[in-house]
């Protein structure tokens, strides 16, 4: 059995494990639930280590073992989401009562769906790449952006929202999901990698003016629009008395005012992090040689996908009070705004990764517009 297949098989054991643990009596005490969570993570970390060691060519990257354990917990999160939506019952009931009761919300449901689908497939893809000794750079950056964005909203939101009094020891089981993604993001962003781009193609791409790049013009216009939307939503979250923010808040996205506080934190992340990124990206699309655009576009695409999947889902979910859901008569605008915020960053990432020549820094040999080969011919 290949390492990647073993990781997939191990992740599916979450189904019988959660069902069995739910039947045990000690799970009625939140302290024992925390201990149980630590033990399960430790045991499956050992299993992940054994999976790697029994291979003829064990994965050299330690992140493989992280993916194996996180894939297991992703299946657990799928079970939690399905139980929150009453699709199944009797698997994680104990954890939702005594472990992390604040998950009993629209936000808790949606982040678990994303972790059980989006993150799960990313773990399997990265584990497969490492077992085949191939690069997982792009997927790794996308995952890092997605999970960091998720944790930045989730962790403080649990403490300062209306669910702050229900925080228990199991809250700290999320610690690895905070530390490891930052470590991986730093590691991937600081790793020098060779970008396949011929010097002649780089020179040709960077000589083109903006008017010769219609896709970049479209992206710049769209990014300006996203920046304006981010400003409006951020000011709405801060309860600005401006007419435009109040109208947007009450007629288009009343969910931002939910007492669980998660949507307000999300809007502030847009205001203070996403909007500056949009402005920097516009600069990178205008001025050639901004190589940081390639990797950071992937980080932001992952963050935007997670943020919008969760926000859209929460704005429509049955666990959100009806008065705070997206009003039916303004939903066309709601969908236009939120799908734009979700998919335009994916388009930007595709442009940067698929056609990187404009963003590659020119080597000394071609700064004068001539390759080393052309010089040798002379």
Protein described:
The protein is mainly α and 378 residues long. Helix content is 69%, strand content 0%. The chain is built from 15 helices and no strands. Helix 1 (3-12) packs parallel to helix 4 (63-84), helix 3 (30-53) packs across helix 4 and helix 10 crosses helix 11 (243-251). The longest helix is centred in the first third of the chain and has 26 residues, at 106-131. It is flat. It starts with a helix and ends with a helix.
Write the layout of secondary structure elements.
Layout: H1 3-12, H2 14-22, H3 30-53, H4 63-84, H5 93-99, H6 106-131, H7 137-160, H8 175-189, H9 199-207, H10 214-237, H11 243-251, H12 262-286, H13 292-316, H14 331-354, H15 372-377
Helix pairs in contact: 1-3, 1-4, 1-6, 3-4, 3-5, 4-6, 6-7, 6-13, 7-8, 7-12, 7-13, 10-11, 10-12, 10-14, 12-13, 13-14
The number of helices is 15
Roughly how many Å is the radius of gyration? 23 Å
Question: Which term fits the overall shape?
Answer: flat
Q: What's the SSE pattern?
A: HHHHHHHHHHHHHHH
Which structural class best describes the helix and strand composition?
A: mainly alpha
User: Could you describe the largest sheet, including whether it forms a barrel?
Assistant: none
| Number of E strands | 0
Uncertain spans: 372-378
Strand proportion, as a percent range, falls in under 5%
On the 0 to 100 scale, the average pLDDT is 92
Distance between the termini: 57 Å
Q: How helical, in percent, are the residues? A: 55-70%
């Amino acid at each position: 059995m290949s390492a990647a297949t073993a990781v997939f098989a191990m992740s599916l054991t979450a189904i019988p494990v959660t069902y069995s643990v739910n039947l045990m009596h000690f799970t009625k005490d939140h302290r024992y639930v925390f201990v149980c969570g630590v033990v399960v993570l430790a045991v499956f970390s050992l299993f992940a280590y054994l999976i790697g060691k029994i291979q003829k060519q064990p994965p050299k990257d330690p992140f493989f073992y992280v993916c194996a354990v996180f894939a297991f917990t992703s299946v657990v999160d799928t079970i939690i989401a399905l139980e929150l939506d009453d699709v199944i019952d009797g698997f994680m009931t104990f954890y939702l009562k005594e472990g992390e009761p604040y998950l009993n919300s629209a936000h808790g449901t949606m982040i678990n769906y994303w972790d059980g689908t989006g993150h799960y497939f990313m773990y399997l893809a990265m584990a497969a790449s490492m077992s085949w000794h191939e690069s997982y750079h792009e997927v790794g950056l996308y995952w890092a952006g997605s999970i960091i964005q998720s944790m930045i909203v989730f962790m403080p939101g649990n403490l300062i929202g209306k669910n702050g009094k229900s925080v228990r020891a199991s809250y700290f089981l999320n610690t690895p999901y905070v530390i490891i993604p930052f470590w991986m993001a730093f590691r991937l962003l600081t790793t020098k990698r060779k970008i396949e781009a011929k010097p002649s193609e780089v020179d040709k791409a960077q000589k083109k003016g903006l008017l010769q790049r219609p896709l970049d013009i479209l992206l710049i216009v769209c990014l300006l629009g996203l920046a304006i939307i981010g400003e409006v939503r951020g000011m709405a979250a801060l309860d600005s008395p401006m007419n435009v923010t109040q109208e947007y808040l009450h007629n288009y996205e009343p969910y931002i005012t939910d007492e669980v506080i998660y949507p307000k934190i999300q809007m502030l992340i847009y205001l203070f992090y996403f909007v500056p990124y949009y402005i920097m990206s516009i600069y990178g699309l205008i001025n050639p040689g901004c190589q940081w655009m390639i990797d950071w576009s992937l980080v932001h695409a992952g963050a935007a996908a997670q943020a919008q999947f969760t926000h859209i889902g929460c704005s429509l979910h049955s666990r959100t009070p009806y008065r705070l859901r997206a009003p039916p008569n303004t939903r066309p605008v709601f969908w236009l705004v939120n799908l734009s915020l979700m998919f335009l960053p994916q388009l930007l990432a595709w442009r940067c990764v698929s056609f990187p020549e404009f963003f590659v820094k020119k080597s000394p040999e071609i700064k004068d517009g001539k390759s080393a080969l052309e010089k040798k011919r002379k």
